[in-house]
Structure formats: structure tokens, C-alpha cells
Write a structure and sequence with these properties.
The protein is 18% helix and 25% strand. By secondary structure, it is α+β, with helices and mostly antiparallel strands. The chain folds into 2 domains: 12-70, lambda repressor-like DNA-binding domains (434 Repressor (Amino-terminal Domain)), CATH 1.10.260.40; 85-197, Jelly Rolls (Sandwich), CATH 2.60.120.10. The strands form 2 sheets. The chain has a 6-stranded antiparallel sheet with strand order 1-2-3-9-4-7, with no helix packed on it. Strands 6-5-8 form a 3-stranded antiparallel sheet, with no helix packed on it. A hairpin with a 2-residue loop joins β5 (143-147) and β6 (150-154). It starts with 11 loop residues before the first helix and ends in a 25-residue tail after the last strand.
């Protein structure tokens, strides 16, 4: 991830505290999961020190969020959201691209987004769990979706719908680029479930607009 010096100032310490408290983790528990000391975490949260990029990745992994979660600000919510392709929020990650379709600024509990995956692109080895429901539609290529102990091979036109409380993960199992539409709905009001689909790979390229 490349962080530009002219990027808007963000209080990383306050964001770390918010993310930790949202996930009901004590400072001691987060220290154990991240391999950092409680003193180091306290210094970061109080703004006494700035964490390195490597430290942010350790914290992101421990909190099960993407690194971008430390830098985003809460967007204003709207009842009507219209987006042209060039106006989409986009985040590049390892072997893939996430594109928001307006859910990140919508007042309701629905988040549609597009995933474009290179061969081998994956959500990671551990799977994810979040509230609500998940709808997947394969637009292009071939995708393997694992939900609990069941595996589904999706090709163009295939769809999948399931309760997101079941552990799930995905990967591009084909030899070409895969593109899929995912719609998350009915999740908890304060949750950002699309972030679970970004937490695995390191974010690269330009500073993410999220």
C-alpha cells in the first residue's frame, strides 16, 4: 500500500480504538493477537506515536479488517445513490480489484460491489463470517465459492445465495480473469461487511479511495 504525504490527515489512533471497541477486543487481547505490546498499542491510540506500515498490517490481520479501514472516514449517507463507472470507489488488492456500486454511501443495509479477480485471486485461507445475506452472480470467468463444507463452482450466469453467518471464502479457480457481482444485505447497521472481502490481500497501487 502506498501512503502519500499529501493525503488528508487521518487520526489513525482514534480509528484503531474505534475498530478495537467495535469488535469488543481489549487492548491486552489485541496485543496478543497482533504480537505488539500493550504499551505500543496505547501509544498509538493516544496519538503519541505513528505506526509503521508493517505494524498496521499486523493490526489489520488481528482485527480482521483491511488496512484501508484505518484511513477511511465515515461517508455521508444518501437515500438515492447514482454512480457512473468512472465514479466508483475502487480498491486494488492482491490479484484483484474491488469496486463499490454505491452501497458504501447508501442509507439502507445493502452493499453491492464488483470483484475482478486474476487467476489465483483468493479471499484467503481462513474464510469470513459476517451478519446478513450474500448474493453472488458470476459475470465472467470461473469462480469457486466455499460455504461451510460445501463447494460451488460458478460460471457465467450462475448465482449463489446464502446466510453470511456461515463461514465462506472464494477464489478464481480458472485460467482467465473472473468477474462477479456480490450483493450483501440485511447486515447489522454498524457493520461494513464488504471490508471482510478485502482483508486478505495487501492493498496495492494508488492510495485507496475508501
Amino acid at each position: 500500500m502506498e501512503i502519500h504525504n499529501d493525503a488528508p490527515a487521518v487520526d489513525v489512533g482514534s480509528r484503531l480504538r474505534e475498530l478495537r471497541q467495535e469488535r469488543n477486543k481489549s487492548m491486552r487481547a489485541l496485543a496478543k493477537l497482533s504480537g505488539l505490546s500493550t504499551n505500543a498499542l496505547s501509544m498509538i491510540e493516544r496519538g503519541r506515536t505513528s505506526p509503521s506500515v508493517s505494524t498496521l498490517y499486523k493490526l489489520a490481520e488481528a482485527l480482521e479488517v483491511p488496512v484501508t479501514a484505518f484511513f477511511r472516514t465515515q461517508p455521508s449517507r444518501q437515500e438515492i445513490v447514482f454512480r457512473k463507472p468512472e465514479e466508483r470507489t475502487s480498491v486494488e488488492f492482491n490479484r484483484g480489484l474491488w469496486e463499490g456500486l454505491g452501497g458504501e454511501t447508501f442509507t439502507g443495509r445493502v452493499e453491492p460491489f464488483m470483484l475482478t479477480l486474476e487467476p489465483g485471486g483468493t479471499s484467503g485461507p481462513f474464510g469470513m463470517i459476517h451478519s446478513g445475506h450474500e448474493f453472488v452472480y458470476c459475470v465472467e470467468g470461473q469462480l469457486e465459492y466455499e460455504v461451510e463444507d460445501r463447494r460451488f463452482s460458478l460460471k457465467p450466469g450462475d448465482s449463489l445465495l446464502f446466510a453470511s453467518r456461515m463461514r465462506h471464502r472464494w477464489r478464481n479457480s480458472g485460467k482467465g480473469v473472473a468477474k462477479l457481482l456480490i450483493v450483501l444485505s440485511g447486515f447489522e447497521m454498524d457493520e461494513r461487511p464488504s471490508e471482510f472481502h478485502l482483508r486478505s490481500g495487501q492493498v496495492g497501487g494508488e492510495n485507496p479511495k475508501i
